[in-house]
Design a protein that fits this description.
The protein is of the alpha/beta class. It is built from five helices and seven strands. The chain has two domains: 46 residues, Rubrerythrin, domain 2 (Single Sheet); 84 residues, no CATH class. A four-stranded parallel β-sheet has the order 5-6-4-7. Strands 2-1-3 form a three-stranded antiparallel β-sheet. It binds zinc ion.
């Protein structure tokens, strides 16, 4: 599954939508199955994927009992694999990279993921850059 931030060229509406793959998005677009629910325009463009902020393991562990954590870990591992394959890791440069994507309006196929402080996330959102928190477990941890 892949989340795209879409923009309607006619009324400038922004909305998010999930697709099975980037290929599925292109297919739907070609068949004119992507319609703006605000003005019924077919001029839907994909904008930059939402950057992801890594949520540290400690916070996840705090939230769940150890049994529940084990089953959640499996899901997180799968999700992690997906993120690693589809997003570029930018580490501590997250805020910088997210801004450069936002302001240069780079039409990049790949989104980014990395670390950001709460302050960074707040500042980014004040600048209109939405981020997504993703749960993360280090490979070394059990
Ligand atoms: Zn529209």
């Amino acid at each position: 599954m892949i989340k795209y931030n879409l923009t309607c060229k006619s009324c400038k509406l922004n909305f998010d939508s999930w697709f099975a793959s980037s290929l599925e998005f292109e297919k739907l677009k070609k068949k004119s199955l992507l319609i703006c629910h605000n003005c019924n325009s077919f001029k839907i463009e994909k904008s930059v994927m939402m950057p992801n902020v890594i949520n540290k393991t400690s916070t996840i562990k705090e939230k769940f009992s150890s049994n529940k954590y084990k089953s959640i870990k499996k899901i997180i591992n799968r999700y992690q694999k997906f993120v690693k394959n589809n997003f570029d890791y930018v580490g501590e440069n997250f805020a910088y990279e997210a801004r450069s994507i936002h302001y240069k309006n780079t039409k990049s196929e790949k989104g980014i993921y990395g670390h950001a402080s709460k302050k960074d996330i707040k500042e980014l959102s004040e600048e209109g850059i939405e981020t997504q928190l993703i749960p993360w477990i280090n490979d070394k941890e059990n």
